[in-house]
Write a structure and sequence with these properties.
By secondary structure, the chain is an all-alpha fold. The protein has one domain. It is 80% helix and 0% strand. The chain contains 11 helices and no strands. The longest helix is centred in the C-terminal third of the chain and has 29 residues.
Length: 254
């Protein structure tokens, strides 16, 4: 019973983060499932993937009702992102993931600062003028990192949409969630076939994650732009710092 309550609460928190910040929630679920529920590392990595699917759908539908999704941009990112996610998963044993995490942390910190400042970092072209090729490039980057690190890809898509392309923040959050719905499907199928998913944990976490995603999305949609930028930018900086500290400790211990 204790494990059940912990799993539901873990899903609820992950769902709120998903809806509020346009990410899959795996960044919280994976360590939570391993630490608090005692799952094996591969199970902790794989089990959040099917949870992300209904969670992202719930968040995306909430943003869609508010008119805050660019559906074409999401599909332009998602289709090439699927292929990239498969490639990323295949390259897991060949690429130094520690180095990848450091690069990811630097990218997140750079984009987070741009979001906190309230202006576009880097490219100045408005999102409405971005080409399908531009969105496809973002999808490929998100897919590769998703396959390599076992995350939904929103941590890459959302800050690039806002910081690089200048897409309005709420629309970027909703668009990112819609793309995530597609991106997690290949990984879910592969890990399910390999028997890496604990379906009991999946059900318990999903019970909390779905309402959490709805609440998180509504909180974001009801927030002022300045407040939301502060929350999203701070969240990305925390994630970047966590990656940086983790890799520094890994390096010191090696």
């Amino acid at each position: 019973m204790t494990d059940l309550v912990v799993a539901v609460l873990l899903g609820f928190v992950s769902g709120i983060l998903s809806g509020l910040f346009g990410v899959g929630g795996g960044i919280v679920m994976t360590p939570g499932i391993q630490v608090f529920l005692g799952a094996a590392p591969i199970v902790a990595l794989a089990t959040p993937l099917p949870v992300i699917l209904p969670t992202a759908i719930t968040g995306a539908l909430t943003y869609r009702k508010a008119g805050e999704i660019d559906e074409r941009a999401a599909m332009w990112m998602a289709v090439p992102g699927i292929a990239a996610a498969v490639v990323g998963a295949a390259l897991t044993k060949l690429i130094d993931t520690d180095l990848l995490l450091v690069v990811t942390a630097i990218l997140l910190a750079y984009q987070a600062i741009g979001i906190l400042r309230g202006r576009r970092a880097g490219h100045k072209e408005p999102a409405r003028e971005a080409t399908p090729r531009t969105y496809a490039g973002i999808g490929v980057a998100a897919g590769l990192i998703s396959g390599l690190l076992g995350i939904g890809g929103g941590l890459i898509m959302m800050p690039l949409l806002v910081g690089w392309l200048g897409m309005p923040l709420k629309r970027a959050l909703g668009t990112s969630l819609l793309a995530i719905v597609v991106l997690v499907i290949p990984g879910t199928i592969v890990h399910a076939a390999l028997g890496h998913i604990d379906w009991a944990i999946f059900l318990a976490v999903t019970v909390g994650a779905v309402p959490g995603a709805m609440i998180g999305a509504r909180l974001a949609l009801g927030s002022q732009e300045r407040t939301l930028r502060l929350a999203v930018g701070s969240f990305l900086l925390i994630v970047a710092a966590a990656y940086g500290v983790s890799e520094t400790l890994t390096f010191l211990q090696s």
